[in-house]
Amino acid sequence: MNKNKEQLLNKRYKAEQRFRLYGQSAIFMALLFLTIFIFKIFSTGYSAFQKTWLIVPVNFDAELMMLDENPTKQDIEDADYYEIALQSMWNLDPNANEDQQNQLKRMVSYFFEREIKQELLKDPNLLGKTKEVYLTASDDLDQVFKGNYPRDLPEDQRRVSDYQLKIFDQLVANGNVESKFNISFFTNADSREAELAGIASSFMGSIFSILVCLMIAFPVAVLAAIYLEEFAPKNRFTDFIEVNINNLAAVPSIVFGLLGLGVLLAIFQLPRSTPLVGGITLSLMTLPTIIIAARASLKAVPPSIREAALAMGASRMQTTMHHTVPLSMPGTLSGTIIGLAQALGETAPLILIGMVAFVNTIPGSPMDPAASLPVQIYIWAESAERGFVEKVSACIMVLLGFLIIMNLFAQIIRHKFEKKWS
Amino acid sequence: MRKNGVKMIKIKAKDVDVFYGKKQALFNISLDIEENQVTALIGPSGCGKSTFLRCLNRMNDVIDICSVKGEILINDFNINDKSCDVVRLREKIGMVFQKPNPFPKTLYENVSYGPTIHGIAQSKQEMDEIVETSLKKAALWEEVKDRLHEPGTGLSGGQQQRLCIARAISVRPEVILMDEPCSALDPIATAQIEELIDELKKEHTIIIVTHSMAQAARVSQNTGFFHLGQLIEHGSTDKIFKNPDNKKTQDYITGRFG
Predict the structure, then answer these.
(1) What pTM was estimated for this model as a whole?
(2) How near does any CA of chain A get to the CA of B209, in Å?
(3) Set of chain A residues whose Cβ sits within 8 Å of the Cβ of B91
(4) Would you identify the CATH topology of the domain B2-253?
(5) What is the model's pLDDT at position A422?
(6) ipTM of the complex model
(7) If phi over 0 gives left and psi between -120 and 50 gives alpha, with beta otherwise, what is residue A23?
(8) Could you tell me how far CA A48 lies from the centroid of its own chain?
(9) For labeling, which of A124, A322, B125, B229 is most exposed (least CB within 10 Å)?
């Protein structure tokens, strides 16, 4: 008998030990996946925050620019920079033949004449002088410099020719290639050229969409939740509504995209590809999430608080507005932020309403066409150029950072405003 | 309190039935409650004494499935009448609950809430006075006067319950309903509250639901005994405890069931 009990006890201890082990290995697995994921993203993405510049001497030859002795600012603005830009690239190899000259030109971004123009606009005294100017390297040379380019491939399989590599190596040896923080990644809109593409358009698009989404979803959802939880009678009809709200939360997001396409664009004729339409579509998706969170946090307010207020002679409305709603706000707000974070990462519905269009301008309002961060990731991931690979990861990093900040904010709200009751 | 030897009846319940859905919780309760006296409602758990108490300020309205039939006259006005405004009613009839339930706000806000929503105080000064007198009457002032702007939930259980009493009396109700106000408190806090009840009955009519026979005997002048939704017996506390008419009352009082 006694021995039997001992065996049982041992069995119990062992079972608990095994269970702990399972739990620990599950957590280990989760952490491992997360680490691999983050490591992969960072190791591919971090280089996108650096940009390679070629330092090229430019002769600001007034004659080639068709400027006279004392040009006005407007003249400098209107001058022709193409010639001096070409000349300065060709000068890297004075013996180049026509084909090689073409290759020289393609070593920098097509933006190079504008970079030269900016230099002169900054300092008009440069006219007639020579100055070393920073020019954006082409995306392929950028990748070569970052060590991401397979130089040992046969030449006909590379987009960078042996000749370009030779000139580039000379520039590197002379210290005329520099890597700097890639500001333009944050200030430029999307571009077909990887070296010029930035996230400004999609970032602003995301912000506008989220704002529109917040402004629609939050008041509607909170009012619906308060009404359902505090005022509506509990009957079959409200049960039916509750079930359908829960169902709505489980509807695949692409369905909301179709709804946006069919209703907002086709019937209401709202402008396509805009954060306005995106935001409205996302708000449909976020609505049930916020309603559920708000109702849960209203439910969590102890009934004793309601009773206390009612017994003091507060009306139902006063009880709700003075006590229940303020007490439920932390939960409602963090639920809202979680819902918005979900909406922020949403791609499918935005693709359907046309926010996948190539947008090379930065939107100034929700009515301007824009992309959004997850759609930008999608667009870049589809692009063939090697330069976009690191950009995809970098964009994911920005999006993740955005999400982490939002979740952090939700946590802070929860901790700061959460009140304890007895 | 008797005027010229005649009992002043504050609340008159006539044939009150209460239903939770289809289940009847109270049967035909008729009970008179005297003004400026403490009336204790006793009885075993689930006997309907709290349900009856909650009829008196219509707190049962909050429960969807609950319906109340019969008349409850307060100052000769039927509160179950459609013309009765529950907000005005609850201003006149305060309530203290079983578990202390201060608002998660400051002490000051807790006490000033009632006067604020009923527009009782005209100025900040007047409000300060109401808060002070209410807390003094609830015998809490000396303990908390230096921390009026700290959260009410930071007080001890007994202090919280006295805060709830202060909150209830801040609107000068005519009647105070107490639903087992001491069940969550230790003996010292209970003694404080009981002392307070004795003091409060000078200005208010008090109805207290309690599980403790000793408490009913200590604080009340009248007692009603409930059993299975029926009012078995009611009368002066002395009589109920010393010489009850009904066998069930006798058994309950002497601890043979309940």
Answers:
(1) 0.83
(2) 16
(3) 313
(4) Rossmann fold (3.40.50)
(5) 39
(6) 0.90
(7) alpha
(8) 14
(9) B125
